[in-house]
Amino acid sequence: EAGVTQSPTHLIKTRGQQATLRCSPISGHTSVYWYQQALGLGLQFLLWYDEGEERNRGNFPPRFSGRQFPNYSSELNVNALELEDSALYLCASSYQQGLSTGELFFGEGSRLTVL
Amino acid sequence: GQSLEQPSEVTAVEGAIVQINCTYQTSGFYGLSWYQQHDGGAPTFLSYNALDGLEETGRFSSFLSRSDSYGYLLLQELQMKDSASYFCAVKSNDYKLSFGAGTTVTVRA
User: Fold this and answer.
1) Which of A39, A43, A49 to mutate to test the interface with B (most CBs of B within 10 A)?
2) What is the pLDDT of residue A100?
3) Residues A23, A76: contact at Cβ < 8 Å?
4) Of A26, A32, A80, B39, whose Cβ has the fewest other Cβ atoms within 10 Å?
5) What residue in A sits closest to B38 (Cα-Cα)?
6) What is the pLDDT of residues B34-83, one digit of tens each?
7) How many angstroms separate the CA of residue A109 from the nearest CA in chain B?
8) CA distances from A106 to A3, A31, A100, B10, B74 (A)
9) What count of CB pairs under 8 Å joins A to B?
10) Residue-wise pLDDT tens for chain A (115 aa)?
């Protein structure tokens, strides 16, 4: 069974540009979570989608947005890129609201570099 | 909101035992999870505690005290492959999983 897949693996942008990151959850998982991990830091919660709806978002500005498609895949959009947006963006999936065991399944991440 | 505290680094030798403590402050606490992340890799789930007590999974054990807002991960019989970052994460009643800053464990020969 395929795990969580993310694309692109690496992305280089310049300040002010927009970045789009994509995530395909494990088959059967309906919840998708996005986290930002800056170099050497912990995971900061960005967004949670479930059944196509945004259910929760972290303390990030509105230029961080996303959506979840009918097939449960998701994309994260970052507008007006700033240097401090450089980070590893991790996507994770779980069963519908299925954090009964606190388990998320993570992808390998997309590393965004803003120059 | 949530806040979690864990040590930033721990170093130990092969075969030793390491305990990584995690204290948290949160509203709507459901449970405490632990994840392992090797350099450049995806975080992987290790354990979850919703009730007080010790959960054992092979060489790794996790403990929770809800009254003390405290938990720990115990790594026994350390191996070189255990060198990684370990994160505690709190599950809250809004189904969000909030992570600590992580503890880097370095295992020396």
Assistant:
1) A43
2) 67
3) yes
4) B39
5) A108
6) 999 998 789 999 999 999 999 998 999 999 999 999 999 999 999 999 99
7) 7
8) 8, 12, 16, 24, 23
9) 63
10) 689 999 999 999 999 999 999 999 999 899 999 999 998 778 999 999 998 999 999 999 999 999 999 999 999 999 999 999 999 999 999 876 656 677 899 999 999 999 9
Residue labelled with tokens 């680094």: B9
Interface test with B, best of A103, A105, A110, A111 (most B CBs within 10 A): A103
Residue B43: which of A45, A101, A106 has the nearest Cβ? A106
Length of chain A measured in residues:
115
B34-to-A2, A103, B97, B98 alpha-carbon distances in Å: 23, 9, 11, 11
Cα A19 to Cα A7, A8, A23, A80, A81, distances in angstroms: 11, 10, 14, 9, 8
Would you state the structure tokens that stand for residue A97, as one six-digit string?
A: 């609201």
